[in-house]
Amino acid sequence: MKTAIQHISQALSTCSGVVVVTGAGVSAESRIPTFRDSMTGLWARFDPQTLATPEAFEADPETVTRWYDHRRLGCLAAEPNPGHLALAEIERRVTARGGSFTLLTQNVDGLHTRAGSSNVVELHGSVARWRCCATGREFEPGPEAMGEFPPASPFEAGAIARPCVVWFGEALPTEALDAAERALDTCDLFLSIGTSSVVWPAAGFVLAATARGAPTVEINPEPTDISQRVTWSVRAKSGEALPAILERMSFH
Ligand code: BV8
Fold first, then answer.
1. Residue 199 CA, ligand 1 centroid: distance in Å
2. Across the strands, what pairs with 120?
3. How many angstroms separate the CA atoms of 18 and 32, rounded?
């Protein structure tokens, strides 16, 4: 009786179009709190879903930008974990044999790219990049904490800056959505890793893959709303499951 890990390894060794969606759980083992667990310490009294909105920024730009700079520094200090590294190697194996591999991430921490993944689509933007609210021009703040909140724009006197992330109620970048649509159109294996699968439109991608008849995978230590509908469910941490899947790929 093959285990889910064995099935997934074999599918990764033979399929032609892999689509992966990741969420905050993939970075949990890099000591970046998951989105819904992120409100610890001084942030415990806030709800991330209320802070990650244009309305919150409009009402209290100091608190919102202070929260995002706090998270930005945490992301810069974090290191990719074995799950990130295994995903990058799996991408190399799939593309080396002529397959396509698209990594659609909801995370804004940049760790997939730092781990060596190359075809990464940042669905919800990046906390490392900020932009002027007056001109839209982007910049990458330095590694030290910002000196003032909200930060002044480096491009326009009197203007402030915001993180280049997609807040609730904001549209995802068109190029990210187009890339996701193109990848899903040729998907014959779909993996959902480390996400609670509640945030749309990313939460709907598994439905598109299922509609194409592609086998679907979930890797998550906790059950989610999609756990019952995927082909193979791995109830484990991504930092453990992904290296195990990679290790078995060499047998195919
Ligand atoms: C939009 C900002 C339209 C950056 C984020 C349809 C139906 C219902 C609602 C909607 C809908 N369409 C749109 C909506 C509204 C809304 C939405 O989905 N609301 C939800 C709450 C119902 N969606 C939007 O507003 C989106 N915009 O659709 O715009 C539009 C069109 C035109 C014009 C205008 C508007 C925008 C969504 C993006 C919001 N921004 N982040 C930031 O601050 O980070 S979303 C936020 O949630 C983060 O990006 C986060 O990544 C994302 C999803 O959360 P998860 O990553 O899943 O994290 P979570 O903590 O929830 O779960 C972690 C999981 O990991 C858990 O399951 C845990 O068990 C697991 N785990 C833990 N440890 C590990 C692990 N797994 C593996 N290994 C481990 N070690």
1. 3
2. 103
3. 26
